[in-house]
Amino acid sequence: MSRRGLIIGLTLALLAPGLAQAADKLPVKLSKVFPYLDKYLAIPPDQRNHFALGYVIQVNGKPATGMNAAILEADGRRTPLPINAEGWVTKLPTAAQLASASFTADAPPNPDFGVHMRISPAMPPAQEYNPRDLELAVSQANAGMDRVAGMMRFAVPTLIGVSFPGAGSGKAKLADGREAPLPMAAGAPYYDPKLLAGATRIVLAKAPTRLAFKDNK
């Protein structure tokens, strides 16, 4: 597994172990479709309320939009697994479901399944942010990855800030009344607390399309 193949602050392509191999033998255990979710849910809620995991299911290299997916409960009940227009699962399984339920779907013959997983700040797109909330998202996510990755933590990039794709540009309002432009990376402004100590408000040119973590690479 590559340096970015365990878990990453932006987006990663991760082949769910067992899902691809068992695609023609559905149902398959939920834990194989949602890797690391059990470890995330085991973190106390007040230690993960500023970051979240997201998953998109792929079939034959494309988001599984329109696929009729469901959670097959241990007692045989089927609970719909909602997938949005971009293929992201909009309601993740519970810890209890991960432990006992399975994934099933109306899939094409011989499907090639895969999973994209994203760890991101748990804040909606907006034009202004409190820097403390962004800093808490970074610290919680780093601590969460410590717990999830365990001995493989050395292979995971450290998160240093929050990026705002689609925002165009941004600035930090400082405690002494000055303003400083946000640095840019990959065409998006980002907030790094170490570069903008004393910021009291982050103001963007427009609301971003989403929030993402900026790592140290």
Model regions low in confidence, pLDDT < 50 over at least 5 residues: 1-18
Which range best describes the helical content: under 10%, 10-25%, 25-40%, 40-55%, 55-70% or over 70%? Answer: 10-25%
Structural class: alpha+beta
Radius of gyration, taken over Cα atoms and rounded to an integer in Å: 19 Å
Q: Helix and strand succession?
A: EEHHEEEEHEEEHEEEEEEE
Biggest sheet record: 4 strands, antiparallel
Envelope shape: elongated
Strand arrangement, major sheet? 1-8-3-4
Strand % is 25-35%
The tally of beta strands, per DSSP, is 16
SS field, number of helical segments: 4
Amino- and carboxy-terminal Cα gap: 18 Å
Mean pLDDT across all residues, rounded? Answer: 84
Your description of this structure?
- This protein is α+β, with helices and mostly antiparallel strands and 217 residues long.
- It has 4 helices and 16 strands.
- A 4-stranded antiparallel beta sheet has the order 1-8-3-4. The chain has a 4-stranded antiparallel beta sheet with strand order 2-7-5-6. A 4-stranded antiparallel beta sheet has the order 9-15-11-12.
- Strand 3 and strand 4 (62-63) form a beta hairpin.
- It starts with 10 loop residues before the first strand and ends with a strand.
